[in-house]
Amino acid sequence: MNHEINKTSLRKKEHLDLSLKADVSFRTKTNGFEHYEFIHDATTEVELDKITFDTKFFKKKINYPFIISCMTGGTYEAENINAQLAIVAEELKIPIGVGSQRQAIENKNYRSTYDIIRKNAKTVPVLGNLGAAELVKLKSLEIVKMLVDLIQADAFVIHLNPLQELLQPEGSPNFKGLLKNLMKLVRHIDVPIIIKEVGAGISGKAAKILLETGVQGIDVAGAGGTSWAAIEMLRNKSLMNDYFWDWGLPTSFCLKENLKLKKKFNFILIGSGGINSGVEAAKAFALGADYVASARTILKELDSAGTDGVKNLITRWFETIKKIIFLTGSKSLKDLRKNKILRRKLIY
Q1: Which residues contact 129 (CB under 8 A, 6 or more apart)?
Q2: Is the dihedral of CA 240, 241, 245, 249 positive or negative?
Q3: Which of 11, 75, 128, 294 is the most buried (most CB within 10 A)?
Q4: What does the angle CA 88 – CA 93 – CA 99 come to, to the nearest 5 degrees?
Q5: What is the CATH number of the domain that holds 285?
Q6: Is residue 340 one of the residues assigned to a domain?
Q7: Rounded to an integer, what distance in angstroms lies between the CA atom of residue 1 and that of residue 3?
Q8: Total domains present in the chain
Q9: What 3-state DSSP class applies to 203?
Protein backbone atom coordinates (compact mmCIF):
# COMPACT_ATOMS: atom_id res chain seq x y z
CA MET A 1 0.00 0.00 0.00
CA ASN A 2 1.20 3.47 -0.82
CA HIS A 3 1.57 5.27 2.52
CA GLU A 4 1.61 8.77 1.12
CA ILE A 5 0.29 11.04 3.85
CA ASN A 6 -2.22 13.72 2.94
CA LYS A 7 -3.83 16.25 5.25
CA THR A 8 -6.77 14.04 6.22
CA SER A 9 -4.48 11.11 7.01
CA LEU A 10 -2.17 13.31 9.08
CA ARG A 11 -5.12 14.67 11.06
CA LYS A 12 -6.36 11.15 11.78
CA LYS A 13 -2.89 10.17 12.99
CA GLU A 14 -2.85 13.17 15.33
CA HIS A 15 -6.29 12.20 16.64
CA LEU A 16 -5.05 8.68 17.39
CA ASP A 17 -1.89 9.89 19.12
CA LEU A 18 -3.77 12.35 21.32
CA SER A 19 -6.46 9.79 22.19
CA LEU A 20 -3.79 7.40 23.41
CA LYS A 21 -1.26 9.73 25.02
CA ALA A 22 -3.03 12.89 26.18
CA ASP A 23 -5.65 13.55 28.82
CA VAL A 24 -8.61 14.40 26.62
CA SER A 25 -11.36 13.50 29.08
CA PHE A 26 -13.99 15.96 30.22
CA ARG A 27 -12.63 17.99 33.13
CA THR A 28 -15.66 19.02 35.17
CA LYS A 29 -18.62 17.35 33.44
CA THR A 30 -19.39 13.67 33.93
CA ASN A 31 -21.58 11.14 32.15
CA GLY A 32 -24.06 11.52 35.03
CA PHE A 33 -24.21 7.84 35.97
CA GLU A 34 -22.82 8.52 39.45
CA HIS A 35 -26.17 10.10 40.34
CA TYR A 36 -27.97 6.76 39.94
CA GLU A 37 -28.08 3.71 42.19
CA PHE A 38 -29.51 0.25 41.60
CA ILE A 39 -32.40 -0.92 43.77
CA HIS A 40 -31.22 -3.95 45.72
CA ASP A 41 -33.62 -6.90 45.90
CA ALA A 42 -32.92 -9.01 48.99
CA THR A 43 -35.53 -11.56 47.88
CA THR A 44 -34.00 -12.26 44.47
CA GLU A 45 -34.67 -15.76 43.17
CA VAL A 46 -32.93 -15.20 39.85
CA GLU A 47 -30.78 -18.13 38.71
CA LEU A 48 -27.41 -16.63 37.87
CA ASP A 49 -26.42 -19.27 35.34
CA LYS A 50 -29.59 -18.65 33.32
CA ILE A 51 -28.77 -15.00 32.62
CA THR A 52 -27.65 -14.62 29.01
CA PHE A 53 -26.83 -11.68 26.77
CA ASP A 54 -27.24 -13.07 23.26
CA THR A 55 -29.47 -10.93 21.08
CA LYS A 56 -29.67 -9.51 17.56
CA PHE A 57 -28.22 -6.39 16.00
CA PHE A 58 -30.72 -5.77 13.26
CA LYS A 59 -30.66 -9.14 11.43
CA LYS A 60 -27.48 -10.68 12.85
CA LYS A 61 -27.13 -12.67 16.05
CA ILE A 62 -24.58 -11.38 18.55
CA ASN A 63 -23.37 -12.67 21.91
CA TYR A 64 -23.30 -9.35 23.76
CA PRO A 65 -25.20 -6.07 23.20
CA PHE A 66 -21.87 -4.25 23.04
CA ILE A 67 -20.41 -2.34 20.10
CA ILE A 68 -16.74 -1.62 19.58
CA SER A 69 -17.44 1.96 18.62
CA CYS A 70 -16.27 3.77 15.49
CA MET A 71 -12.66 4.80 16.02
CA THR A 72 -10.23 5.08 13.16
CA GLY A 73 -9.23 4.47 9.57
CA GLY A 74 -7.54 6.34 6.77
CA THR A 75 -4.04 6.37 8.20
CA TYR A 76 -1.29 3.76 8.23
CA GLU A 77 -1.49 3.15 11.99
CA ALA A 78 -5.23 2.50 11.73
CA GLU A 79 -4.87 -0.69 9.70
CA ASN A 80 -3.22 -2.63 12.52
CA ILE A 81 -5.64 -1.24 15.13
CA ASN A 82 -8.69 -2.11 13.04
CA ALA A 83 -7.29 -5.55 12.21
CA GLN A 84 -6.89 -6.39 15.91
CA LEU A 85 -10.23 -4.94 17.00
CA ALA A 86 -11.95 -6.91 14.24
CA ILE A 87 -10.42 -10.12 15.58
CA VAL A 88 -11.87 -9.30 19.01
CA ALA A 89 -15.29 -8.55 17.50
CA GLU A 90 -15.33 -11.84 15.59
CA GLU A 91 -14.25 -13.93 18.56
CA LEU A 92 -16.76 -12.31 20.95
CA LYS A 93 -19.45 -12.10 18.26
CA ILE A 94 -20.16 -8.40 18.75
CA PRO A 95 -20.66 -5.49 16.32
CA ILE A 96 -17.79 -3.19 15.35
CA GLY A 97 -17.72 0.22 13.72
CA VAL A 98 -15.11 1.79 11.48
CA GLY A 99 -13.87 5.34 11.78
CA SER A 100 -14.94 8.02 9.32
CA GLN A 101 -14.59 6.72 5.78
CA ARG A 102 -13.98 10.17 4.36
CA GLN A 103 -10.43 9.16 3.57
CA ALA A 104 -11.68 6.27 1.42
CA ILE A 105 -13.43 8.86 -0.74
CA GLU A 106 -10.40 11.13 -0.99
CA ASN A 107 -7.63 8.57 -1.36
CA LYS A 108 -7.79 4.94 -2.52
CA ASN A 109 -4.43 4.23 -0.88
CA TYR A 110 -6.01 3.86 2.56
CA ARG A 111 -9.06 1.76 1.76
CA SER A 112 -7.38 -1.33 3.19
CA THR A 113 -7.45 0.34 6.64
CA TYR A 114 -11.23 -0.03 6.47
CA ASP A 115 -11.83 -3.28 4.61
CA ILE A 116 -9.42 -5.12 6.93
CA ILE A 117 -12.27 -5.07 9.45
CA ARG A 118 -14.54 -7.17 7.26
CA LYS A 119 -11.65 -9.48 6.38
CA ASN A 120 -11.08 -10.24 10.08
CA ALA A 121 -14.70 -9.95 11.22
CA LYS A 122 -16.43 -12.10 8.63
CA THR A 123 -19.69 -12.92 10.43
CA VAL A 124 -20.45 -10.06 12.82
CA PRO A 125 -22.22 -6.74 12.14
CA VAL A 126 -19.91 -4.06 10.76
CA LEU A 127 -20.90 -0.39 10.79
CA GLY A 128 -19.77 2.06 8.12
CA ASN A 129 -19.26 5.71 8.98
CA LEU A 130 -19.27 9.18 7.42
CA GLY A 131 -19.52 12.64 8.93
CA ALA A 132 -22.59 14.83 8.47
CA ALA A 133 -20.35 17.62 7.16
CA GLU A 134 -19.33 15.29 4.32
CA LEU A 135 -22.86 14.02 3.68
CA VAL A 136 -24.21 17.51 2.97
CA LYS A 137 -21.47 18.07 0.37
CA LEU A 138 -21.98 14.84 -1.58
CA LYS A 139 -23.23 15.31 -5.12
CA SER A 140 -24.20 11.67 -5.38
CA LEU A 141 -25.30 9.17 -2.73
CA GLU A 142 -23.71 6.45 -4.84
CA ILE A 143 -20.53 7.35 -2.96
CA VAL A 144 -22.13 6.14 0.27
CA LYS A 145 -23.08 2.91 -1.50
CA MET A 146 -19.42 2.50 -2.38
CA LEU A 147 -18.46 2.95 1.27
CA VAL A 148 -21.07 0.37 2.31
CA ASP A 149 -19.77 -2.10 -0.26
CA LEU A 150 -16.14 -1.48 0.73
CA ILE A 151 -16.68 -3.10 4.12
CA GLN A 152 -19.89 -5.03 3.37
CA ALA A 153 -21.53 -2.93 6.07
CA ASP A 154 -24.62 -4.15 7.91
CA ALA A 155 -25.52 -0.61 8.98
CA PHE A 156 -24.16 2.84 8.27
CA VAL A 157 -23.41 5.58 10.79
CA ILE A 158 -23.66 9.28 10.06
CA HIS A 159 -21.79 11.07 12.82
CA LEU A 160 -22.76 14.52 14.00
CA ASN A 161 -19.86 16.61 15.27
CA PRO A 162 -20.73 20.31 15.04
CA LEU A 163 -18.52 21.21 18.01
CA GLN A 164 -15.50 19.38 16.58
CA GLU A 165 -15.99 20.86 13.11
CA LEU A 166 -16.32 24.31 14.68
CA LEU A 167 -13.01 24.01 16.55
CA GLN A 168 -11.03 21.99 14.02
CA PRO A 169 -8.66 24.22 11.99
CA GLU A 170 -9.61 22.26 8.87
CA GLY A 171 -13.23 21.88 9.95
CA SER A 172 -16.41 22.40 7.94
CA PRO A 173 -19.03 23.79 10.37
CA ASN A 174 -21.73 23.86 7.70
CA PHE A 175 -24.58 21.36 8.00
CA LYS A 176 -27.11 23.10 5.78
CA GLY A 177 -29.25 20.44 4.11
CA LEU A 178 -28.48 17.69 6.62
CA LEU A 179 -32.06 16.57 7.25
CA LYS A 180 -32.96 16.65 3.55
CA ASN A 181 -29.92 14.54 2.70
CA LEU A 182 -30.65 12.12 5.53
CA MET A 183 -34.13 11.49 4.17
CA LYS A 184 -32.64 10.83 0.73
CA LEU A 185 -29.99 8.55 2.18
CA VAL A 186 -32.53 6.44 4.10
CA ARG A 187 -34.40 5.82 0.85
CA HIS A 188 -31.25 5.28 -1.22
CA ILE A 189 -29.27 2.89 0.98
CA ASP A 190 -30.29 -0.71 1.64
CA VAL A 191 -28.79 -0.88 5.16
CA PRO A 192 -30.13 0.82 8.32
CA ILE A 193 -28.86 4.33 9.05
CA ILE A 194 -27.70 5.14 12.59
CA ILE A 195 -27.03 8.67 13.82
CA LYS A 196 -24.19 9.14 16.27
CA GLU A 197 -22.77 12.14 18.09
CA VAL A 198 -19.07 12.09 18.98
CA GLY A 199 -19.22 13.18 22.62
CA ALA A 200 -21.58 16.12 23.00
CA GLY A 201 -24.80 14.10 23.14
CA ILE A 202 -28.13 13.99 21.30
CA SER A 203 -31.08 15.56 23.11
CA GLY A 204 -34.61 14.22 22.91
CA LYS A 205 -35.61 17.16 20.72
CA ALA A 206 -32.76 16.54 18.28
CA ALA A 207 -33.42 12.79 18.26
CA LYS A 208 -37.08 13.32 17.37
CA ILE A 209 -36.12 15.47 14.38
CA LEU A 210 -33.58 12.86 13.27
CA LEU A 211 -35.97 9.93 13.69
CA GLU A 212 -38.56 11.70 11.56
CA THR A 213 -36.15 11.38 8.61
CA GLY A 214 -36.46 7.59 8.85
CA VAL A 215 -33.16 6.70 10.50
CA GLN A 216 -33.27 3.48 12.52
CA GLY A 217 -30.81 4.09 15.32
CA ILE A 218 -29.55 6.78 17.69
CA ASP A 219 -26.19 6.56 19.44
CA VAL A 220 -26.35 9.34 22.01
CA ALA A 221 -22.55 9.53 22.52
CA GLY A 222 -22.97 11.94 25.40
CA ALA A 223 -20.56 14.03 27.41
CA GLY A 224 -18.42 12.41 30.07
CA GLY A 225 -15.93 10.38 28.05
CA THR A 226 -13.58 11.69 25.38
CA SER A 227 -13.82 15.40 24.61
CA TRP A 228 -13.20 15.89 20.90
CA ALA A 229 -13.17 19.59 21.61
CA ALA A 230 -10.15 18.92 23.82
CA ILE A 231 -8.44 16.96 21.07
CA GLU A 232 -8.89 19.79 18.59
CA MET A 233 -7.76 22.37 21.15
CA LEU A 234 -4.59 20.40 21.82
CA ARG A 235 -3.96 20.25 18.09
CA ASN A 236 -4.31 24.03 17.90
CA LYS A 237 -3.22 25.70 21.13
CA SER A 238 -4.64 29.08 20.07
CA LEU A 239 -8.16 27.66 20.46
CA MET A 240 -7.82 26.69 24.14
CA ASN A 241 -11.11 27.40 25.91
CA ASP A 242 -12.14 25.50 29.03
CA TYR A 243 -15.83 26.22 28.45
CA PHE A 244 -15.97 24.35 25.14
CA TRP A 245 -13.67 21.60 26.46
CA ASP A 246 -16.60 20.47 28.62
CA TRP A 247 -19.43 21.31 26.21
CA GLY A 248 -22.18 18.72 25.87
CA LEU A 249 -25.11 16.82 27.39
CA PRO A 250 -24.35 14.02 29.89
CA THR A 251 -24.91 10.50 28.56
CA SER A 252 -27.42 9.62 31.30
CA PHE A 253 -29.58 12.65 30.42
CA CYS A 254 -29.51 11.80 26.70
CA LEU A 255 -30.57 8.19 27.34
CA LYS A 256 -33.53 9.22 29.48
CA GLU A 257 -34.67 11.78 26.92
CA ASN A 258 -34.30 9.42 23.96
CA LEU A 259 -36.10 6.60 25.77
CA LYS A 260 -39.26 8.73 25.79
CA LEU A 261 -39.35 8.46 22.00
CA LYS A 262 -39.51 4.66 21.98
CA LYS A 263 -43.31 4.61 22.09
CA LYS A 264 -43.57 6.58 18.85
CA PHE A 265 -40.51 5.47 16.87
CA ASN A 266 -39.13 2.01 16.21
CA PHE A 267 -35.39 2.52 16.64
CA ILE A 268 -32.40 1.10 18.45
CA LEU A 269 -30.92 3.20 21.24
CA ILE A 270 -27.18 2.99 21.81
CA GLY A 271 -25.60 4.29 25.01
CA SER A 272 -22.07 5.63 24.65
CA GLY A 273 -20.04 8.48 26.04
CA GLY A 274 -17.88 7.65 29.04
CA ILE A 275 -18.82 3.97 29.32
CA ASN A 276 -15.70 2.88 31.18
CA SER A 277 -16.87 0.01 33.39
CA GLY A 278 -19.41 -2.75 33.72
CA VAL A 279 -21.32 -0.68 36.29
CA GLU A 280 -21.63 2.27 33.91
CA ALA A 281 -22.70 -0.07 31.12
CA ALA A 282 -25.35 -1.59 33.41
CA LYS A 283 -26.65 1.87 34.31
CA ALA A 284 -26.86 2.74 30.61
CA PHE A 285 -28.96 -0.38 30.03
CA ALA A 286 -31.15 0.43 33.03
CA LEU A 287 -31.77 3.93 31.62
CA GLY A 288 -32.97 2.50 28.33
CA ALA A 289 -30.03 1.59 26.10
CA ASP A 290 -30.52 -1.42 23.83
CA TYR A 291 -26.75 -1.61 23.30
CA VAL A 292 -23.74 0.10 24.80
CA ALA A 293 -20.60 1.16 23.01
CA SER A 294 -17.11 2.27 23.93
CA ALA A 295 -14.15 3.60 21.96
CA ARG A 296 -11.21 5.21 23.78
CA THR A 297 -11.27 2.77 26.72
CA ILE A 298 -11.11 -0.10 24.24
CA LEU A 299 -8.35 1.60 22.24
CA LYS A 300 -6.22 2.16 25.35
CA GLU A 301 -6.74 -1.43 26.49
CA LEU A 302 -5.68 -2.69 23.07
CA ASP A 303 -2.57 -0.52 23.23
CA SER A 304 -1.58 -1.79 26.69
CA ALA A 305 -2.78 -5.41 26.71
CA GLY A 306 -3.52 -6.45 23.11
CA THR A 307 -6.52 -8.38 21.85
CA ASP A 308 -6.63 -10.68 24.89
CA GLY A 309 -6.82 -7.63 27.14
CA VAL A 310 -9.77 -6.21 25.20
CA LYS A 311 -11.63 -9.54 25.21
CA ASN A 312 -11.08 -9.93 28.96
CA LEU A 313 -12.20 -6.34 29.60
CA ILE A 314 -15.50 -6.75 27.75
CA THR A 315 -16.30 -10.16 29.27
CA ARG A 316 -15.48 -8.82 32.77
CA TRP A 317 -17.90 -5.95 32.21
CA PHE A 318 -20.67 -8.38 31.38
CA GLU A 319 -19.88 -10.54 34.38
CA THR A 320 -20.42 -7.39 36.47
CA ILE A 321 -23.68 -6.69 34.63
CA LYS A 322 -24.81 -10.27 35.30
CA LYS A 323 -24.25 -9.75 39.03
CA ILE A 324 -26.22 -6.50 38.95
CA ILE A 325 -29.08 -8.24 37.12
CA PHE A 326 -29.11 -10.90 39.86
CA LEU A 327 -28.93 -8.44 42.75
CA THR A 328 -31.81 -6.35 41.39
CA GLY A 329 -34.04 -9.40 41.02
CA SER A 330 -34.02 -9.08 37.25
CA LYS A 331 -33.96 -12.02 34.87
CA SER A 332 -32.55 -10.18 31.88
CA LEU A 333 -31.44 -6.81 30.57
CA LYS A 334 -35.05 -6.22 29.57
CA ASP A 335 -36.04 -6.71 33.20
CA LEU A 336 -33.25 -4.41 34.34
CA ARG A 337 -34.95 -1.56 32.46
CA LYS A 338 -38.12 -1.92 34.58
CA ASN A 339 -37.67 0.53 37.46
CA LYS A 340 -34.51 -1.11 38.84
CA ILE A 341 -32.56 2.11 39.20
CA LEU A 342 -33.14 5.27 41.21
CA ARG A 343 -31.85 8.79 41.10
CA ARG A 344 -29.87 9.81 44.18
CA LYS A 345 -29.90 13.52 43.43
CA LEU A 346 -32.42 15.70 41.66
CA ILE A 347 -30.11 16.22 38.71
CA TYR A 348 -29.91 14.86 35.17
Answers
A1: 70, 73, 97, 98, 99, 100, 101, 156, 157, 158, 159, 196
A2: negative
A3: 128
A4: 55
A5: 3.20.20.70
A6: no
A7: 6
A8: 1
A9: coil
CA separation for the pair 252, 296 (Å, rounded):
18
What would you report as the CA-atom Rg of the chain, rounded to the nearest whole angstrom? 19
Closest to 24 (Cα-Cα) out of 224, 169, 162, 172: 224
- Whether 6 maps to a domain, the answer reads no
pLDDT one-digit tens code per residue, 140-165:
999 999 999 999 999 999 999 999 99
Instruction: Tell me the residue type at 335.
Output: D
Nearest to 219 by CA among 289, 282, 278, 285: 289
pTM for this predicted structure: 0.93
Q: Beta-strand (E) ranges in 104-231?
A: 126-131, 155-160, 193-197, 217-219
According to DSSP, the residues that pair with 218 across neighbouring strands are: 195, 269
CA 340 vs. chain centroid, Å, equals: 25
Question: Helix (H, G, I), strand (E, B), or coil: what is residue 294?
Answer: strand
Q: Which DSSP letter does residue 96 get?
A: E
In a domain, 209, yes or no: yes
pLDDT, tens only, 209-247: 999 999 999 999 999 999 988 988 888 876 777 789 999
Of 333, 297, 229, give the one whose Cα is nearest residue 67: 297
Rounded CA separation 129/159 (Å): 7
- Residue 178 CA to residue 175 CA, distance in Å, equals 6
Look at residue 254 and tell me if it is in a domain.
yes
201 phi and psi angles, rounded to 5 deg: 85, 155
Domain carrying residue 179 = 14-30+59-318
